[in-house]
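Hi R.,

Here's the chain you asked about this morning:
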Amino acid sequence: ALGAAGNAWITSAVYQTLIGVVDDGLDPGEALALPRFLVGGPAAGPDGVRRRVIQYERGFNPEVVRDLQRRGHIMRPISLNGELRMGYGAAALVRGGRAIAGADPRRSGAAGEIR
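And the predicted structure, written out as tokens:
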């Protein structure tokens, strides 16, 4: 089970957390802690051509950011971790008969196991 709050960031937060658990084998807490990004609508670049805007949190490899810029994307870093638009999430996973839960570290709170 996985969910998030945070307007436009909800879908990307849920998707990125799901990918972290399914593809990378992370537990819910680890996946929720991954840096987030949001691909937005087009905006005019310095040359006047409309390009995609990608907002991103600290934690991404700087070479990846530069590569995306070279490909024409407009990269906009988010100034503060945990700004009120981040898609705050919570997740629970049942694996091997054990419930594992995670709470987004961008907000106060915790997740635990009920026995």
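The beta strands are 2-5, 37-44, 50-56, 74-77, 88-95, 98-103.

Let me know if you need anything else.
M.
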